[in-house]
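step: validate -> pass
step: tokenize input -> pass
step: predict -> running
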Amino acid sequence: MKPPIRILLVGCGRMALGHANSLKSLSELGIIVAGVDPSEDARNNLKTQYGVSTTFDDLDHALANVEADAAIIAVPNFLHRDYTIACLEKGLHTLIEKPMALTLTDVDDMIATAEAKGKLLMSGQSQRFSTAIRQVKKLLEEKVVGKIRHVIHRRLGSGRGGDENSWFARQELSGGILPGIGVHSLDVLLWWMDEKAVSVSAIVQNIDPHPDIDIEDEVSLIATTESNAILNCALSFHHRAGTEWTVMGDEGVIHLNGTSGPLLLNGKEQNIPETVHLAGEPTIHLEFLTAIHNNRPLAQASARDVRKTMALIFAAMESGKTGKTVSVSTSP
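step: predict -> pass
step: emit ->
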């Protein structure tokens, strides 16, 4: 049996501890050998809760002193590009939390580095591993609604994920609502449709300005895909109106409430099995570690696959600034 993958956990905050918790049941495949975080409290939490005794306050120091095979990076969004490239350059397979980066140029730099180094680069698109969302994908692969004509999605909640003391509250550090949660929504829609977007028109606003909170927090967009299907998405940090997904084809309609159901096909509730079998593994960490162990490409959420999501996000942000319909980049 192969030894477990040695993982460097970059970032020891809330998101990183979520990764650590998920990895507990996968110790035969991968173990955290060290953690990195400038916060002593965060490093101590990793030691106390998960027994990781080796920690560093600086990534360069960690990379110079730790023998690892892979990195899981969960740090503020504006650091994603540089930290990912540093880990890839060191020869580590890398799982980067979403969003991959805050510009498409940075995304392309990350992909190019991974491919030059022959290392896996996976994006933390965790909703692809939600059972109900995977069941919709399976139904669409079975062509139950025929040719997809139109998808409508809304994710409307309250709370911006941080106060004025949080990096998430600053547009230049977080990227705002589109990279923040739109990356999940748009990735699912494009994954379901198995297409790229080609153009987008968006309204992107900060509807409740605050001197210390300048993030874009309200979005409505319409995009077209390669087959001329329509993608319609609304996102909010202000209105507690819930999450819904509707996929309309020339032979039927799927509706999913939230991310766990109920799931309806032509108005009839559908069973959501405990495990939905699609390409690859059913959880994000199992897919990442298994792909490394088996020396195979990622079956889900590879950086190159997720690039189409990031391209749509950045095109929508540009449309919001210019008030014009924007073409979506389809290749590096």
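step: describe -> The longest helix spans residues 303-322.
step: cleanup -> pass
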